[in-house]
Amino acid sequence: MKIKTVVFALAAAASMSLSAEMKIATVDLMVLVRNHPSYDRDKTLLSSTDKDYQKKLELIKSDGDKLQEEGKKLMEQMESPMLADKAKADIKTKLMDIQKKLMGIEQQYRSEAVHFRQELQDLESRLLKATTDDLRKRIAAFAEANGYDVIFDSNATTYAKPSYNVTDAILKDMGVDPKNAKGKDEGK
Predict the structure, then answer these.
(1) Are 143 and 25 in contact (CB under 8 A)?
(2) Could you give the CA distance from residue 139 to residue 175 in angstroms, rounded to a whole number?
(3) 17, pLDDT greater than 80
(4) Any bridge partners for residue 27, and if so which?
(5) Chain-centre distance for alpha carbon 76
(6) Cα–Cα distance between 99 and 93 in angstroms, integer?
(7) DSSP string of 44-74?
(8) Which helix (H) or strand (E) holds 25?
């Protein structure tokens, strides 16, 4: 990724020397993402989805806890000296059955946890892609309207003059007051 950025920057620099005057700008893409109209909604969706998944995992865990309690009670019964051999054998059979069920529940819990984590990551990726796609369109429209030839992500460049940064202008286009923008002071 960085090699592509360097190559692209070198190509841009080379073409700059060939053309009369190239208009270049930078944006802080992370600030734009954090202030995108869908950011808070997406964050809430991810949080509620995570909570739903945690509830489902808690139900599975609760089933396992109930079985463990049942197993403890059977173990206590088995310690009774008054218990007949047939009853002990029945309890052992029940304990083996409980152990098998607990192993199944444990496998189900792990499997579901992995599945939920993957689904949550996929959802987060889809939401971020939708946001960045929208931002790319907004940045392209801004560049067209203002005559910019190239707009780089300021987080991917080694150095750019602060005067090249047009993040505030794009925030204004998004309806966000740059003074109140989320994430503007992070990383400085």
Answers:
(1) yes
(2) 14
(3) no
(4) 153
(5) 46
(6) 10
(7) HHHHHHHHHHHHHHHHHHHHHHHHHHHHHHH
(8) strand 24-27
Give the orientation angle of helix 85-146 with respect to helix 39-78, to 10 degrees. Answer: 170
8 A C-beta contact, residue 31 and residue 181: yes
SS3 content of the chain, % helix, strand, coil (to 5): 75, 5, 20
* CA–CA dist 67, 60 (Å, integer): 11
Residue 37 tokens read as 């109209």
168 residue type, one letter:
D
Cβ contact 34:183 at 8 Å: yes
The model's pTM: 0.73
Residue type, 7: V
Of 27, 15, 22, the C-alpha closest to 152 is 27
Kindly report the backbone phi and psi dihedral angles of residue 24, in degrees, each rounded to the nearest multiple of 5, phi listed first.
Answer: -120, 145
Q: How far apart are CA 54 and CA 92, in angstroms?
A: 34
Q: How many residues does the chain have?
A: 188
pLDDT in tens, 105-130: 999 999 999 999 999 999 999 999 99
Whose structure tokens read 């360097």?
6
